[in-house]
Design goal:
- The chain is built from 8 helices and 7 strands, in the order βαβαβαβαβαβαααβ.
- With 256 residues, the protein is of the alpha/beta class.
- The chain has a single domain, classed as NAD(P)-binding Rossmann-like Domain (Rossmann fold).
- Helix 1 (20-30) packs across helix 8, helix 3 (68-82) runs parallel beside helix 4 and helix 4 (109-134) packs parallel to helix 5 (157-177).
- The longest helix has 26 residues, at 109-134.
- The radius of gyration is 17 Å and the shape is globular.
- The structure holds nicotinamide-adenine-dinucleotide.
- The site of nicotinamide-adenine-dinucleotide has 27 residues, from helix 1, strand 5 and helix 6.
Amino acid sequence: MGLLSGKKGIIFGVANEKSIGWAIAQILHKEGMELAFSYAGEALESRVRPLAESLGSRIVVPCDVSDDSQIDNVFDIVKQEWGGLDVMVHSLAFAKKEELKGEFLNTTRDGFRIALEISAFSLVALAKRAAPLMEGRNGSMVTLSYYGSEKVIANYNVMGVAKAALEASVRYLAADLGPKGIRINTISAGPVKTLAAMGISGFKQILDVVEAKSPLRRNVSQEDVAKTALYLLSGLSSGVTGEIIYVDSGFNIMGF
Ligand code: NAD
């Protein structure tokens, strides 16, 4: 019997087989969890549906997190099909490509709004709908962040600000959800070659620096991140909430 047998979870943020969300889905499935998936827009359905079906998932629904009616629809379906929920994975972010290069000083009003809304507010919007379904079930939520929330990383720009807002949101949500027995934590992952990462100008350089300078002298894989997600989404982390756990080969601890 798996660690998560009989449990039900929903994953937001799978785009393809390289997505961190997909690695998390696979490890949760391996431990016995039944999963639901959302995809952002019709173009991604043909990628996400076969992946979801390969894990036996019956619930595969569209959800662009900028649209409240689509978010409502996802949770209505989950409630109807399952009656409750144990786990939610928020593994999504977006900023316009032109905001992820050059000076942060040039961030536009619209670029700032979009990055913060899709990458940070979406967690609040999803958590608000997930929480009532998790009460009495020791629910757990996880989101994905990056070190650019704390330190200046060239070209990460407005996404660093969005990740700072995301991490702060996790703390406030943890305080609200804790009394209901629901936990929420952040994984701060090292750089991983995915679709989203390829939008960041000079991303290869970030990978090279982590490989050269991190204590483990390597980059992390999607699976490294997924294993920590399993810890945070299972009873193994029953006393942990509101935290940021780094899965970055130790890069964040280094000074000169
Ligand atoms: P990915 O491109 O595979 O996943 C990003 C997901 O965001 C996609 O599934 C995309 O459809 C979704 N998304 C974008 N706009 C959306 C919208 N409006 N509505 C709903 N979904 C939307 O890339 P990934 O690297 O797996 O990213 C997952 C998470 O991990 C992101 O939060 C990212 O910032 C974070 N992260 C990534 C890295 C990295 O180096 N890859 C490092 C640290 C943190």
